[in-house]
Design goal:
By secondary structure, the protein is an alpha+beta fold. It has helices at about 30-35, 45-55, 60-70, 240-250, 310-315; strands at about 1-10, 20-25, 25-30, 75, 80-85, 90-95, 110-115, 120, 125-130, 135-140, 140-150, 165-170, 175-180, 180, 195-205, 215-220, 225-230, 255-260, 265-270, 275-280, 285-290. The strands form three sheets. Strands 1, 2, 3, 4, 5, 6, 7, 8, 11, 12, 15 and 18 form a twelve-stranded mixed sheet that branches. A five-stranded mixed sheet has the order 9-21-20-16-17, with no helix packed on it.
Length: about 325
């Protein structure tokens, strides 16, 4: 099932969120099943509570939701506004790197950073590059994200499914200080400017995805394909990620872990561009980019310092095996 948050065109505020089911015909309003009709969410935190409550009660609500999905009237997508399905997660943990990128090397230790929850935006929103000139550039990273049900603590790799409610698409927008280095020497700050965590368009429940390490991730900038990889290329697969993060911290319902990206598709983002992510089996959405300073960088897949793009590998290490294209 694909769960969304949405507002009607005449909603009293941006955050007057209703829970819905995304179907081939549009969005089916699920508020009659899962939302107190007397309560109108009026903030991002309120909207987060709508989805968190749905996650917590999903097992008992599932029969009614499935009936709604089959027989409920669907609103066409152009008649609603989709919100980020998790507008203010309690935690957004992100894997550092975590992809082999087709190189022959030992796996790097699994490591993570936290991203500012106020950075979340959703379908049709705008990434606002900061009016701030220390970072030399800004890049996109397309990632699979896990949505947790909790409280989950010390979950074993064998029981990882107990902690995962579902999956969503995630763009990790990143400020760089040089080459591929994250601004402020790889700290979380270069990841955490407001609007730097586009997320959506839905949460696909875990029962719909047989293997999260067998998903196809694509990303386009103004129609130019950049990221194009499979999640089976993770150095540390989803069961290991779940065990690792729940060893360190309690993951609550609606918390998110982004699984890292294949850096072969990195590229700059700049004013006026449209960014689109699709993870096949989950969904797709777009956001715009606005830069008040109108800065410009080279368009295309990043080929500079630290690049792992195949063409860059071929150029700098002609003997390397780049046959995987």
């Amino acid at each position: 099932m694909k769960l969304v948050l949405f507002t009607a065109s005449d909603a009293p505020s941006r955050w007057a969120a209703k829970p819905g089911i995304l179907t081939d015909s549009g969005v089916v309003d699920a508020s009659s099943v899962s939302l107190d009709p007397a309560w109108v969410p009026l903030s991002a935190a309120d909207a987060q509570r709508v989805m968190t409550d749905l996650i917590d009660r999903y097992d008992s609500l599932k029969p009614a939701l499935e009936e709604l999905a089959r027989s409920g009237p669907a609103l066409p997508l152009d008649a609603v506004r989709l919100l980020p399905p998790l507008p203010r997660p309690g935690k957004i943990a992100n894997c550092l790197a975590n992809y082999w990128e087709h190189a022959q090397r030992e796996a790097r230790p699994l490591n993570m950073f936290l991203k500012n929850a106020d950075a979340v935006i959703g379908p049709g929103d705008t990434v606002e590059l900061p009016d701030f000139t220390e970072p030399y550039a800004f890049m996109h990273e397309a990632e699979l994200a896990l949505v947790f049900k909790g409280p989950s603590k010390r979950v074993t790799q064998e029981n990882w499914r107990d902690a995962v409610f579902g999956y969503t698409c995630f763009m990790d927008i990143t400020a760089r200080e040089s080459g591929r280095r994250t601004w402020r020497n790889n700290s979380w700050m270069g990841k955490s400017f407001d609007t730097f965590a586009p997320l959506g368009p839905c949460i696909v429940t875990a029962d719909e995805i047989n293997d999260p390490n067998d998903l196809w991730v694509q990303f386009w900038n103004d129609g130019q394909l950049r990221h194009n990889y499979m999640t089976d290329d993770m150095e540390h697969p989803v069961p290991e990620i779940v065990a690792f993060v729940t060893t360190i911290m309690t993951m609550n319902s609606g918390d998110v872990v982004a699984c890292g990206t294949n850096h072969e598709g990195l590229g700059f983002v700049q004013d006026g561009e449209t960014l689109k992510i699709e993870i096949h089996g989950i969904g797709a959405f777009e956001v715009k980019v606005h830069d008040p300073l109108k800065r410009e960088w080279e368009r295309g897949v990043y080929m500079g310092e630290g690049s792992t793009n195949h063409e860059a590998v071929k150029r700098n290490k002609p003997e390397a095996d780049v046959a995987h294209g």
